[in-house]
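It would be a great kindness if you could assist me with a short task in structural biology. Thank you for your consideration; the sequence and its tokens are set out here.
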Amino acid sequence: MAAADVQSQQWYLDAMDADGMWKTSTGKGVKVAVLDTGVNPNTSSLKGQVLEDEVPQAVSYNATKDFDGHGTSMAELIAGTGAESGLQGLAPGAKIVPYRVLTKGVGNASDKKKTPSVEDAIRAAADTDAQIISMSFGGDTIDPDEEEAVKYAQSKGKLMLAGTGNDAESKNFIGYPAAYPYVVGVAASDEKGKVGKFSEHGHYVDLAAPGLNVPAWCDATFQSYCVQKGTSMATAIASASAALIWSAHPDWTANQVLRSLIDTAGRTWPKGERSSYLGYGLMRPRKVLENSSINPGPANTDPLSFENSIGVEEASPSTSPSPSTSAPSQAPQNTSGGGTSAARSSSETSDNTVLWVALGAAGALAVIGGGAFAVVRSRRGA
């Protein structure tokens, strides 16, 4: 896809009323640490948007050299300016602090040795003034050092988001870092608010965001965009949503930003209940921005305290998935929480009448394959 066509494919900008939200907030003043494959600061959409000098030196190796195109795409989805017909970020006033982390596909042995581990990057980002840590990658292995780094970042007041994963149709493993306590697990939804078949599900799904039919760079040549799908895209758009809110309410804490997103999420089930597919529902930051008197709740109370205390469990195989729905090939976990109900079917949508304001504009999009969640964490020494 030529760059000139890319913005016409960003269906969620109209659906989420980006133009309306930008009258209140563009994300200005908010910094987002993007832990990924590196971020190319020289694309038309990211010129002036990447704060490469603010990456701590100890973890700065190749932070602005993207070997895959994935990290640059995530950065553009968050804070791209749309200049010269490039990707338009949902929070174009925000700034990106880039980190290349140790993932599958990182160069040769020398590169792997020099590239920061995920835990080192999280700790480094936690010690900066970046408010949001966006992680569009995952794996099925718990790393105690990584989990401790997440706890450290939470103690520093950071809001962390990560994709739940793209393997629901095969093994539906529990994905980390999304499943760690204090990390917001983000699922991927389509234009109608339905969860993607590939989007992994379970107790660790907290919220959902657009993640199907979303443009991203095809590769590291940065010559063209491809329409892709994945919880990676959903994570970036969710991070941008948080940036919009934090910019409008700079005195709020990470807990309050997250609680406002949970309370206003689009869903067809009662408030306070959750789905193993869509969590508490689909993010709609405009519902926060349009309500100047919204109550974000207590500053120091974790809105996911119950989920973070019980942890996650393995999903069980489905015995009779319905061929008439978009249900993944494995069944959801039962939901947990005070009085919450069992997980909803993936065929359920999230109150589209109030979630999307321009659904009709999305109808002409075509799916062009692509594996946006291509960044799989490599264990150290592997």
